[in-house]
Amino acid sequence: MERVARPERTKEAAVAALMLVQAACATFFLLDILGDFLDASDGVWARPHLVMELAANLSLIAAVAFEAAYLRRLLRRQARTDRALSAASGALHDVMDAYFDDWGLTPSEADVARFTIKGCTIAEVAGLRGSAEGTVKTHLNAIYRKAGVQGRAQLVNLLIEDLLAGPVPRPQEAAARNGRAAARA
Q1: Dihedral angle of Cα 23, 26, 27, 31, to the nearest 10 degrees
Q2: Tens of pLDDT along 58-101?
Q3: How far apart are the C-alpha atoms of 174 and 94, rounded to whole Å?
Q4: CA distances (Å), origin 123, targets 92, 102, 126, 134
Q5: Is residue 102 within 8 Å of 140, Cβ to Cβ?
């Protein structure tokens, strides 16, 4: 999760920095236009380029204000999406743990099942667990038999279907469930 958060914060900081540069430019141009207006002895409206500069500068200021509001809205939406993803992730974890308990998986089988559901190959699971590929295959056969499925796709489908069938708990509910699960262990 940290790997995702850092690039996003870097992008946010870059956009904010660009907005500050735009605001600084707008301030500079506004002061320049103000000086030109004060120096205009023949009347401001006699110099159409000053009016054009003022209109362009006001447009730049409006764009910076719009960008700030839009960035704030995007950041709020991202925060809501991150919270929902976190809740869904916790819910999937809870669903998986409940199924693993119901199926009577051993801790090793549950570990292999988690890696398999995440999409790891047999060789990757073996490497991550420090075991032989044959051991992983034996665990997978036991998992599939206990779950009553034919393979990885059906296993993942079973978990996702159950997750989609019910409401996703709010982060507080997921945290409470995780606390109860930790207390049972």
Answers
A1: 180
A2: 898 898 899 889 888 988 888 888 777 776 667 778 778 888 99
A3: 8
A4: 24, 27, 5, 10
A5: no
The pLDDT of residue 88: 67
Count of domains in the chain? 2
Range of the domain at 144: 88-184
State pLDDT tens for residues 159-177: 778 767 755 444 455 445 4
In this predicted model, which residue has the larger pLDDT, 13 or 145?
145
Q: Are residues 178 and 95 in the same domain?
A: yes
How far, CA to CA in Å, does 24 sit from each of 36, 86, 141?
A: 18, 38, 65
Mean pLDDT of 107-121: 92
Cα-based angle 29, 33, 34 (whole degrees, multiple of 5) = 115
3-state secondary structure of 151: coil
End-to-end CA distance of the chain: 26
CA-based angle 62:63:67, to the nearest 5? 120
* Degrees to nearest 5, angle at CA 17 with 21 and 54: 25
> 51 and 44 in contact (C-beta within 8 Å)?
yes
Rounded CA separation 105/132 (Å):
19
For 81, the token pair is: 């999406």
Confidence class for position 1, pLDDT limits 50, 70, 90: very low
Instruction: Indicate the residue among 41, 61, 83 that finishes a domain.
Output: 83
Q: What is the CA radius of gyration of the chain?
A: 29
